[in-house]
Amino acid sequence: GFATLDHHRAERVGYPEVIYCEHKTTPQVAAIFKALAVKGHNVLATRISKEAAEAVLNDFPSARYNPLGRTVALYQGIQKETPHKIAIVSAGTSDLNVVEEAYETVLCFGNRVDKIVDVGVAGIHRLFNKLELIREARVIIVVAGMEGALASVLGGLVDKPVIAVPTSVGYGASFNGLSALLTMLNSCASGITVVNIDNGFGAAYAASQINQL
Amino acid sequence: GFATLDHHRAERVGYPEVIYCEHKTTPQVAAIFKALAVKGHNVLATRISKEAAEAVLNDFPSARYNPLGRTVALYQGIQKETPHKIAIVSAGTSDLNVVEEAYETVLCFGNRVDKIVDVGVAGIHRLFNKLELIREARVIIVVAGMEGALASVLGGLVDKPVIAVPTSVGYGASFNGLSALLTMLNSCASGITVVNIDNGFGAAYAASQINQL
Amino acid sequence: GFATLDHHRAERVGYPEVIYCEHKTTPQVAAIFKALAVKGHNVLATRISKEAAEAVLNDFPSARYNPLGRTVALYQGIQKETPHKIAIVSAGTSDLNVVEEAYETVLCFGNRVDKIVDVGVAGIHRLFNKLELIREARVIIVVAGMEGALASVLGGLVDKPVIAVPTSVGYGASFNGLSALLTMLNSCASGITVVNIDNGFGAAYAASQINQL
Amino acid sequence: GFATLDHHRAERVGYPEVIYCEHKTTPQVAAIFKALAVKGHNVLATRISKEAAEAVLNDFPSARYNPLGRTVALYQGIQKETPHKIAIVSAGTSDLNVVEEAYETVLCFGNRVDKIVDVGVAGIHRLFNKLELIREARVIIVVAGMEGALASVLGGLVDKPVIAVPTSVGYGASFNGLSALLTMLNSCASGITVVNIDNGFGAAYAASQINQL
Amino acid sequence: GFATLDHHRAERVGYPEVIYCEHKTTPQVAAIFKALAVKGHNVLATRISKEAAEAVLNDFPSARYNPLGRTVALYQGIQKETPHKIAIVSAGTSDLNVVEEAYETVLCFGNRVDKIVDVGVAGIHRLFNKLELIREARVIIVVAGMEGALASVLGGLVDKPVIAVPTSVGYGASFNGLSALLTMLNSCASGITVVNIDNGFGAAYAASQINQL
Amino acid sequence: GFATLDHHRAERVGYPEVIYCEHKTTPQVAAIFKALAVKGHNVLATRISKEAAEAVLNDFPSARYNPLGRTVALYQGIQKETPHKIAIVSAGTSDLNVVEEAYETVLCFGNRVDKIVDVGVAGIHRLFNKLELIREARVIIVVAGMEGALASVLGGLVDKPVIAVPTSVGYGASFNGLSALLTMLNSCASGITVVNIDNGFGAAYAASQINQL
Amino acid sequence: GFATLDHHRAERVGYPEVIYCEHKTTPQVAAIFKALAVKGHNVLATRISKEAAEAVLNDFPSARYNPLGRTVALYQGIQKETPHKIAIVSAGTSDLNVVEEAYETVLCFGNRVDKIVDVGVAGIHRLFNKLELIREARVIIVVAGMEGALASVLGGLVDKPVIAVPTSVGYGASFNGLSALLTMLNSCASGITVVNIDNGFGAAYAASQINQL
Amino acid sequence: GFATLDHHRAERVGYPEVIYCEHKTTPQVAAIFKALAVKGHNVLATRISKEAAEAVLNDFPSARYNPLGRTVALYQGIQKETPHKIAIVSAGTSDLNVVEEAYETVLCFGNRVDKIVDVGVAGIHRLFNKLELIREARVIIVVAGMEGALASVLGGLVDKPVIAVPTSVGYGASFNGLSALLTMLNSCASGITVVNIDNGFGAAYAASQINQL
Ligand SMILES: Nc1ncnc2c1ncn2[C@@H]1O[C@H](COP(=O)(O)O)[C@@H](O)[C@H]1O
Ligand SMILES: Nc1ncnc2c1ncn2[C@@H]1O[C@H](COP(=O)(O)O)[C@@H](O)[C@H]1O
Ligand SMILES: Nc1ncnc2c1ncn2[C@@H]1O[C@H](COP(=O)(O)O)[C@@H](O)[C@H]1O
Ligand SMILES: Nc1ncnc2c1ncn2[C@@H]1O[C@H](COP(=O)(O)O)[C@@H](O)[C@H]1O
Ligand SMILES: [Mg+2]
Ligand SMILES: [Mg+2]
Ligand SMILES: [Mg+2]
Ligand SMILES: [Mg+2]
Ligand SMILES: [Mg+2]
Ligand SMILES: [Mg+2]
Ligand SMILES: [Mg+2]
Ligand SMILES: [Mg+2]
Prior knowledge:
8 copies of one chain form a homooctamer.
Chain A: E1 17-20, H1 26-37, E2 43-46, H2 50-59, E3 64-66, E4 71-74, E5 85-90, H3 96-108, E6 112-116, H4 125-129, H5 131-135, E7 139-144, H6 150-155, E8 162-166, H7 178-185, E9 192-194, H8 200-211
Parallel strand pairs in A: 1-2, 5-6, 5-7, 7-8, 8-9
Antiparallel strand pairs in A: 2-4, 3-4
Bound molecules: adenosine monophosphate (4 copies) and magnesium ion (8 copies).
């Protein structure tokens, strides 16, 4: 009895069960994964270690492991696909693992998605080149570390809900993501909402809820 | 030339122009209000002082002043009304000015809205009494100070996007809203996104964008 | 002479001697344990490393090692058992080591105890299912990380003293337990008192004092 | 409808209704006070301004106003009196308003109480002179600002539950009570639990719960 | 003897003496101003109160008072004018007093200067409209509060030294300028250097040193 | 009984009683002053308001009021005078009230003293001009706000105990004295010890203890 | 497609391409290095691990690896050399890796440079011995950890732009460079600008821009 | 040339040279040690790693290595011994490495010294047992982590200069020594001065200066 599984979310048809693996042992992760998979739903594991991923893949060889995003996803039954798209836009190469966590999550929840990476404000022309593509999306996830200015700039250029994810990328006075977090909370572009530092999963969850309204 | 007005937002038909009055003098507020009203759009002023509100009402007697929410709203032309509703839920009586700021903003952007106030977690039965009403909304704004736990509890009970607004209500280790802000960012209920402390306007702006998708 | 043993606590009949092992070497822990055991009292070691636990178990094979709670307990003589119970309630699987530290401590002080784990507010029905059991206790220890909202919710539902333990579980803006700590200090449910982050021992000590009044 | 009154607490026989006045207007306070008094229970208002206190006293001339503690208490019916006592111990003259808030609260909840003030650790003989009196209590509230060391010292000298209230008294690196708060959370005397900075009410509430077990 | 005047700076020909008035009384300010003016140099007073400004203007009717920038400047002799220009670029109307402090300082040190205000990133087209003008400058001062993203964006668009001034404009999690300060320190646009929050004077001083190399 | 006077310190012959007035009312200050004066010792009141000072001077016309240092000192009997001197060195004009608090305290404790003010590191020649005088002292108090670098520089130039007092002078990222406090605690000049922000009294007390060894 | 290379900076003739390696894998670094080198420009890699440096040197044996500064520099074509010099001045031996990062960067951008190390304020005569040499430079970079006072002292002694780099050297209340950062931002010597903690690269970039005006 | 040795301190006859080894390599430490030893003075190395200590002992077999205090001391010539004693008092077993650093330093500077360890306030009778011994000292160093209350208690019991060293011992809200640091800075016992967290060396240096006045 180390877990009281919350079947609350499973009632939403097509939604995957999600396991947050950070503080769990490999046997715990494997056991919970199996218990959820057995019910026939999709299952997503986030913050999974290499070791736990291998244990899960052993049990479910068809599951997909994304080492950069630290996720394992198991698809069962027919996967829904939304008419609208979510865009995931990121500032730098170093933000990629948060991008991938968000990416696997939105996919797993049945959304169409575009990734537009490494378009940070230090070279803003890179962002403008992709603006048309970004504007096609119904919801936009912005991922940025260091000073996180990309969220404000993008927020001023689009007319869609923007969910900002500060990352812990940086050093010194970035204080492990605090700088980017404060930037995003204080954005003078209206309508930006923010999730926890490095919380690609949470941003994806919210984006998916919006995309499927 | 103390301001470079941003007509960017006006292009979105039906959206009001919004003036953030906090650091502006009464003559500045009155002048900007007039300049925007003249174009025939709706105009919303937030964080307005009593003095500035009176100056604006002098010029536009039909404008509505909400002293609790510190807003003045001018409606011109036919007001759109959304099919879906936004719910604004708050923890305590002390959070009311943030609630009112959000309320005036969502109204002004043409949304239907319900207010459910003083249903904080210290007496959680009050929240359950209102759950059915809250679930009718397409988007939910949660406003809470002190420890801000209402966002997490509500987030676990509904299946809609939840936008959380921490307030500066509290004392001592609430650190002017920091406590509620951290609570909301770390919520273990998925899909909650957060705006700045006391930022009722920002939450309303984002909620309206989502409500009108 | 690296320690001035405090026999102050031993004077309270039936109370165990407690060794905080965090900054002590294995030989130091083993020597102090022996010096206390020899007097015939119960002995409890907290924050003990695997290595130190093994050294102690070598000397006292009948002692009980709880690796999750990082404790070793030695029972000597007849163990008292309180008429009343303490409840230990926790939010998630990840809080278990703090739960276990508290559990071993209240047991060792001669209290009856119930553990109710993984009933965090993200799925609040899980808490309501256990409310009757929780209400049987004379004192309640609440253990929660991330946003720590469980303390507030429970505090509003029971009429008994609630001692809240914030845990360092979380990431990003949880700031190693600061978020949960602030939540608990600012709880708008009356009568909640708080101990240090991850301090399962301290909460158990206070709960035991109250339970045995 | 600016308030959803929580009659939940009234069900605990003999406990007064408590109004936290900090963010409420004088008319709001007066109206809520009347609404609660009418039911025949005791009523306690905390953090009340002089102006609001006068409005309430106008309505209820027999209510007691404590300007130092910023409370107004109305006693109705027969007041219960506990067999056991609560001790309120404070470090300095400057902590008196927190002491008085706690004092009025424990009184109002029907507890016997002793106040022992200005016995801070800078002159520790003052504390020892009062130790016998303090030890008569079943629960002890310690109130201290600046470095808050009194809680640790007292915690090591008594065998009863100690509830510590850090105060905002101090300057510079006291950071409005943060210093005393951290001291108390890190106390190496076991069994101390802590409430928010300046929260005399909360400490009294918890102490009363314990005293009446 | 309340001051040991530092004539060190006077040795740099043409540079005015600067009086920082913040913690000084009106008589102190007036006395120091007179003592410096008498030597025939230009004199600049910053952070001057209205009262002190009037006292100085009474003594030196030809001095120029800038109430927004809180400066008084006295020009004596022939004013030098640099071949190159400094640009002062700001994000919003609320940053104007910092802009004016910087403006009066660079003028007073003999620099040509352009002010480009209210071009924050929430409506980035406003910045692009002015880019050609900004690029004419030899050094650029960027003034921004809230999230301060303007510094990063501009830093990626120009090839000149950029000195960033975070302002205390904002509320909530802007923490009186901390948010903008961290943004600017962590900027991923290279070559940006930063001064203290609201330190328009310091930025202007550094810009002038560079402009006159 | 709002105070438990601590006669402990009076036993140290010649030392005055000290009243910290910050959180006390005028009648409280006047009463305590009288109670101490009556015993024939010297009395010193610190952090005294203008109003309380006038009340005390009314009772004791021979007492000396220092409005800048916010002190009132009453000398009774023969004043001792130490053979050695204390030097109080400060960085800027704005630090003067802390300097004066320290000055009145060391005087009152019977020490000879030199004040050397406004010799901050921005014009370090001013410090070198006074070095000989400073070196005559047996103990040195350094008072500095903003970045507080004077303590480090002086600490590297003298061979005597240096007590550093950070002041709250500054703005922005000085965070009310935190910057100077951290500077002084991290000084790479050995042998510097530090007191609380603006604590001129505490530095003077420690310096006097050392000077009179 | 893990990177969108920003050729923006390459347009400035003679400037090297710079790769920030901190969060990149060895293959990523090697690939980006090659991609940039192939265009014939100079290439600089900062924050490079030993492993990645070896991979790059394998491809480009003529590149220069500075293990202390954690840089690899590849020079191609004729290297420009500025008429003016940059001085890099540091407080202690422990700051050397930041010094070396700055040194390699200014060299690589074609500047003449002097290094003056270990002249911290604890022994200020060491600084005065080098003052003449430092004054020859057109721009000065100051590198200091712990309390960072060197920036203020030097800033008061020279008439040139000073760029200050706080380092993470220190312990305890240095808070990984926060102390030095605050010192530098609050410097009472005018004209000092500041970059992020340990950001030798950024200081060098800005210094080079100024040196080549 | 990686170091500019500061012979400033060596001029004080009998004082040892001190090497702070934290950020230095083993060869650097060994080289500096040799360079200083050769001049015939005493040499003290602090924060030395096991590896570096062995290298130094290889060169100087008569040097004394204290692994707990992380020091190596080399005595040459006749060692002075002060008439007065320094007392080093500590709260718990976990503070011992800071105690030992202070101990080796005061010894090396020629002072007589007493160590009184593990007398923290949780069992205050332990302190009273040693008070007579402590009062024999001319200066007292207090070493304490967690809540650091020992400094205040001792400061109120003795009439000698007290230098307080906060240690990083603790967990959770001790924030690596911040809690103890704030406690000591805010002590309501007068005359306590404070050094950096874990800075046993600095406290010893200051104590030695005072002891030898
Ligand atoms: N990467 C993540 N970050 C934050 N929350 C997560 C993450 N992944 C999963 N979760 C949430 O954590 C819950 C599972 O927590 P647990 O009961 O500890 O397994 C899921 O239902 C999700 O709502
Ligand atoms: N300016 C001051 N800052 C800190 N402590 C002070 C100050 N002035 C007096 N004190 C101390 O505060 C004690 C008096 O506290 P109280 O009992 O509140 O009057 C005195 O004995 C002094 O030790
Ligand atoms: N040590 C450094 N610190 C901060 N920024 C750097 C550093 N080294 C390089 N950069 C910047 O980072 C940019 C490259 O970032 P990236 O696209 O992640 O390789 C370069 O153009 C530089 O402007
Ligand atoms: N443990 C220590 N903590 C702080 N400062 C120290 C310590 N040990 C030595 N020092 C100081 O650091 C100086 C040596 O610095 P360095 O030039 O880097 O070797 C010595 O002269 C001492 O003043
Ligand atoms: Mg990039
Ligand atoms: Mg309410
Ligand atoms: Mg769970
Ligand atoms: Mg007192
Ligand atoms: Mg604007
Ligand atoms: Mg000055
Ligand atoms: Mg050195
Ligand atoms: Mg011990």
